[in-house]
Amino acid sequence: xxxxxxxxxxxxxxxxxxxxxxxxxxxxxxxxxxxxxxxxxxxxxxxxxxxxxxxxxxxxxxxxxxxxxxxxxxxxxxxxxxxxxxxxxxxxxxxxxxxxxxxxxxxxxxxxxxxxxxxxxxxxxxxxxxxxxxxxxxxxxxxxxxxxxxxxxxxxxxxxxxxxxxxxxxxxxxxxxxxxxxxxxxxxxxxxxxxxxxxxxxxxxxxxxxxxxxxxxxxxxxxxxxxxxxxxxxxxxxxxxxxxxxxxxxxxxxxxxxxxxxxxxxxxxxxxxxxxxxxxxxxxxxxxxxxxxxxxxxxxxxxxxxxxxxxxxxxxxxxxxxxxxxxxxxxxxxxxxxxxxxxxxxxxxxxxxxxxxxxxxxxxxxxxxxxxxxxxxxxxxxxxxxxxxxxxxxxxxxxxxxxxxxxxxxxxxxxxxxxxxxxxxxxxxxxxxxxxxxxxxxxxxxxxxxxxxxxxxxxxxxxxxxxxxxxxxxx
Length: 475
Ligand code: FAD
Ligand code: NAI
Prior knowledge:
alpha/beta, five-stranded parallel sheet, single chain, Enolase-like, domain 1, 13 helices, binds flavin-adenine dinucleotide, 3 domains, binds 1,4-dihydronicotinamide adenine dinucleotide, FAD/NAD(P)-binding domain
């Protein structure tokens, strides 16, 4: 028998589960369908982010950072830590338990908000009398109907042509989070966000890490002053990054991988490694959705085509998150999920793409919001820049972490903040102030005039804002 709902959400990643909660808050009868299975075959809502993305990667980054601190930095504080060892199995078990706490948290939220959760694969079926239908198969078999559908089916790792992921030697983000022993030699292809985060984890644990990047520029989307500062720090840590390479043949043996490539000078090279992580971007996931049954338009990458409001070409069908255009970020997916639920309720929701922050959780962390100096130049915008180094910040000195800087970019005429870029300690947290400022269209002078706690890293933000007008107080 078909079960009727007001809204059906397909996918319970950050885009889907948040959309479902917001729709339920607005009084709709909501179903959410998600196929992800935990190790026991049970439901594991939360999508890529919770299961093989944001959450587990940050758990491993934290464990490996503790290990690195204990081995290399405790002595600066007068602490002797001898015989420090890494128990990789325990680190992975902790990560798995963090993931499960998040899975359980989402199942609890579904119950709390009276959302009907269906564990299984959701496929669109032809509408009947203008009402949409979804078939659930796999762990649960069900037939559902609703006038409104939200597709939040996310993305999957992109493989190199001819080299599929085996998750033993050639790893995607999934396998990269499940390596049971520290590889002696690790090669990563792609020095984007995953390459840098996962490369950092395994380097801190003792692997010899080389990242091969196709582009000649390091972190091309990041403000280049910030990217250069980060690269200096990564070089010092021994994270080897080769830019401008062309990856050739990859040979996978029983134990290990050999990667042939041409370096930036045009020389043929080969790297042998115990493991290879391929982190060259992600592709929208629409396989098995049966998009054809309703005439849903997909673009050449397989992404669901949507307008600025996340409406697809089919009335009553919406799509959010990684499966549509825009940055593949959990918080962007969540904002779209909330906005779509509110639009279904007839409200006027808004997602400001200009103030979506980015964070790379390396050490030092890298974060930014708004435009880079390179983008402002390309756009022909007259701007003023101000920077402040953490070296001159009292809290950073006390923490023993003075790498990096805060950089402000403001309109030369109006002083409106156009971009804020940070490399350094707690950059992930510091960027929130800049996001709020830009959302309220603050000027750099507004931030410069606000009282910031002392001693705090946030004083570097205030000082960078002062630097726009060339009046830093502590530098
Ligand atoms: P997803 O999280 O991919 O969820 C989609 C869900 O839909 C999945 O559970 C999938 O099983 C399910 N599904 C798909 N098709 C069907 C179907 N037909 N029927 C039923 N279920 C289906 N972003 C950040 O903002 N911060 C980070 O720190 C961060 N770290 C990351 C680290 C890694 C290693 C990776 C890979 C990604 C990271 N991301 C991070 C990106 C983030 O994970 C994604 O942007 C986010 O998960 C997208 O959310 P989503 O809801 O669109 O899709
Ligand atoms: P990415 O787009 O960040 O980086 C991919 C890199 O691979 C680029 O630098 C690209 O030039 C390079 N590349 C592509 N093809 C190549 C080839 N054939 N040879 C060599 N280099 C090649 O993608 P990544 O790291 O896979 O991550 C996917 C997405 O997941 C990110 O863009 C981001 O949206 C999300 N993510 C977000 C995180 C965060 O917010 N902290 C953490 C991890 C992932």
